[in-house]
Structure formats: C-alpha cells, structure tokens
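seq as requested:
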Amino acid sequence: MAQTFTTRPEIRGTFGAVASTHWIGSAVGFGILEQGGNAFDAAAATAFTLQIVEPHLNGPGGEVPIIVHPAGADCPRVLCGQGTAPGSATIARLNAMGVTRMPGTGLLPAVVPGAFGAWMQLLLEHGSMPLDDILAPAIAYARNGFPVVHRAAESLHAIAPFFRAHWKHSADVWLPGGDAPRPGARVSQPQIAETYARILAEAASAGADREARIEAAMRAFYQGFVADAVDRFYRTEQADDTGTRYPGLLTGEDMARWRPTWEDPVSTEFAGVTVHSAGPWTQGPALLQVLRILDAAGIDSMEPGGAAWAHLIVEALKLALADRDAWFADPEHADVPLDRLLSPDYIRRRAAAIGDTADGDLRPGDPAPDGAARRDALLALAATPGSTAPRNMGQGTGEPTFADLPEIEGDTVHFDVVDRWGNLVAATPSGGWLQSSPAVPGLGFSVTTRGQMFWLDERLPSHLAPHRRPRTTLTPTVLTRNGRAVMGLGTPGGDQQVQWTLGLLLRHLHQGLNLQAAIDAPLLHTAHHVSSFAPRMFRRSVLCIEDRFPRAVRDELAARGHHLDVQPAWSLGRMCAAGFTSGGFVRAAATPRFMQAYAVGR
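struct tokens:
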C-alpha cells in the first residue's frame, strides 16, 4: 500500500505524547511524563516553559482556556483561565478619558491575568507532582537562557526603539546592554526566574502538603507580592498605540476577587465524533456552527481541496464569524442564544443562504428579537474609515500590532498532551506578549491586553463592562467518540484559529489523512470578518490561500468572486494535535511551518 509523504512522521506509541508549538516545550512536557507525572502535570510544565521560550506569543501574565478529558470521564470539561475586566472598567469612564476605541496595547486593555490561576487549579485537582518540579524547567530556562526563535528576535528588533523611548522596564528586561538579540542568541529572563522562585518559596511556607503549597502559590500571585506589583505599576501612565499615555484600570483588588472556573463544553456531532469547545466567551462555538452548516450543505460528498469545497468552507465561515461578532459574549453577563444559533432549523437556513459566488456582505443572522440592532452596529463598525485598509493577513495576524511599527505581532501558543492512563489535555495559552504592554517592574513580565477585544458600543453583547470576560479568539478543541477521548487539537492565529482547526478536521475526518498529513495539507482562511483585535479591520471578500493549492482551484475561486491573497507555501497555520487511536495507541503531530513546533512521544 502506498504511503503518503509527510514532513514528519505521525508519532505513535503506548506511553504518552506531547505536541506543542516549540520543541523545548514538548521536550519538557514529555520529560514530566517520563518522571512519572500524568498529562495534567506535563501540561502545566509545558505551559510554564512556553511562557519563557515563546515570550512574544504568551507570558506569565497571560490567559488560557484548557479542555481536559480525565481517563474514565464521560465528557471533557473546560477550565476557564480567562481573566475578567477591572471593576472600574466602563465605557463611560473610557469616554471621559477621551478614549473612543479600546487601545490594542499599553495598560488600559489589561484584564486579570488568568493563566497562572488556571494551571494551579488544574494541578490542585488533577496533578500528582510537587509544584517545585513543575516549575523547575521554566525557572531553569529563564535563569540560564534559551535560544531565541527567529520571530521573537524580529519583534524585539522592531520594537526596540519604542522600548527605549517609552517602556524603560521592558528595555531593561529585553534589551540587555541596549541591543535586541539576534535569532538563535541565548536569552535569559532572570526577573521572571526570581518571581517564580519567590512564589515557590512562599508556597513552601505553607508546609509539606502538595495541595497547601499550590493554594499558597495562588495567594502569592493574586493576593500577594505579584498583585501588589501590578497594582502599583498600573497606577502610572504608560504609552500605548493611540499615541497617548494612560494609566491602567487593573488593581490588586481585581486580581484578588478572581478565581478560575470549571464549565461544561459546548458540543456537536460531526463525522462520527463529538466535537467539544469552550463556551461563547471564546469563538469555539463558531467552529461547531460551521461544522453543522457544512454538514447540512453536504460537504462530505465534495472533493477535498477542490474549488467547490473551498468555496463552501469560506462562505460557511463568513456566516459563522458574523454570528460570532453579533452574538458571542461572556454568557454570565449577556444573553447568548447559543441553542438557537446551533439549532437544526437555523443551521438549515444558514446553509441555504450560501450561493455559488462569493457573498460580499457581512451577514450575521437573526436568531433573537434584537438581532437587527446588533447587525446594524456590526455593519457600522465594519464600515468605519480605515477598517478596510489592506493588511497582510498571514500567520499570526489578528493579534496585537503597533500601527506605527512593522510586523510586530503578538500571537498564541498551543499544545496537547496524552498519557498512558488515557488522560488528555488541550490548551491554547496566550496574552502577556512582551510587545503589547510594558513589563511590570520587579516581575519581569507583561500583563495581558486581552481587553482590547471588548467593544465600546453597548449594542454589541461583548462590550466593555466590569468583571466581564472578553470574547476571546482562543479555540482549543477536543474530540470524543462514545464518551472516550479521541484527540485534542488547536493552533495559534487569532481569528484564524477556528478556520485552521476546521481545515485539519476536514482533512482528517473526511479525507482520511493521518494527523501529520492533515496538518501538512495546504490551508486557507477568510479575512471577510471584523477583526477581533485593534484596529478592527475588515477585508471584504478576501480569501487568504497558500500557493500550494493548484492554480486551477485558485482561478476558479477568483472567478466565483473571491479576492485572493495568495500566501507563500507553508505559511498558514501552526496546528498541533495529540490523541488516541482506536487500537489503543497514543499519537501526535505538529506543524512544520515556521520550524518551531514538534511532537514527542513513544
């Protein structure tokens, strides 16, 4: 039987596997499995290590949604590590400061950094190893150094003048000696190492009990010296991408009142599996909606990779992403009609709205009585002058960018872990990008600017208000079959996360490719949506497509009315996946794109 060529093997074994967006993170996670830790221990160690080695993509002050499927459980659960808006964060307060759009950088868009608390909660309830062992690899890399990847060095070189002029503390952390590092240079983060070492020291004062130490570490971060340092610094004024200096709104009190929460996932059946995502405080349910639309439209009968297949995918994504923007929000603070958005009747109507040519309109649906007002607000914001400006929408875009500096992208990391006992973890950490907010003095890291995703328009459900979660783009996904874990998967990429995850699912579930082949396959995504990030651009009918799609396919898509933005080969997506085969093997795969991600297993 002929074997499909892949850039790397699909990893298979019986012991365990880790797939992450950086080879060091994968190696650290697998090392924890080798030491006898479970998937939850390995996931936390991987996460803390990725904060160090991919600091332009996530950090200690970021956020994370985590989906876990413990061995023997009937269904996955979602652990929300997305922090909330400050208690004083209101549209009226920002307007009084002269702010009419939420900045993408600086102090104003900060929300409570939730990643640390989420990993502590996961370890508290499902971990098995001492906290010192989990944090040891991250502290070692922060203290002793790591090779800085090309894209991190690019970002640092581009933003170095801004650091020197405006964010002195960031310059101290990232420009030792005054210069940005070159790709491959050894970089250390001693302040972060000392921050985590101090947390461990305070945790040790709680005694020998593992759980007591984890709780003490949580207090040190959210009620102790970390929160105190954030509180002091966020009362100062710092520059942001509006060209103005503003103080922050985040306080120690905001941090002290927050805790991570467990939630049930949102789920749908597709191609013989159940697909699970986090709730509408993420864009995960948009993936479920588009899968249902595609199913209703008969995509399983189409040639994978063909023009009709690609057209149907893009048009379904346009509808699902428009519904995301019009309806998704923190369900604890907004009425999100998720049942109606995923109902068979509504899905049939959305599928029937797809024609043979590209739709140039922005068309959220109307599943609830106030839909017209939301649709009007979204259309008005999409038509804001400058919102349709050309922009490279390649890998990682959608995350924060300084308008006056070239190609300074924050982004995200993703990883999946499975172990020999049948546990599975899928997580998409993000935020706390070194280039999006100034480093907090004494801590060495930046605080998330995820609040930039709030709208300053009350007609849209995900508008700024106290103690709300922003509607994030982070989209970890888990598949199960008959209640048993099958796979965790995901990717960085802002608004593209749903779209690239969809590509992997279709290639694997419909085309029958193994995980590595499905990840290697050429990708596409639509830019026909309002960006989730400042400056909220909208590129009407633009389809970004890798040039590995055949020319005939691209020509037919253009003839159907899509405005093609042809991207270089191997430039879209940073997918990772790990799971279990029906025969009882563990398996994993990671993208070769950008030469960072790796899967490790045996």
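The longest strand covers residues 484-490.
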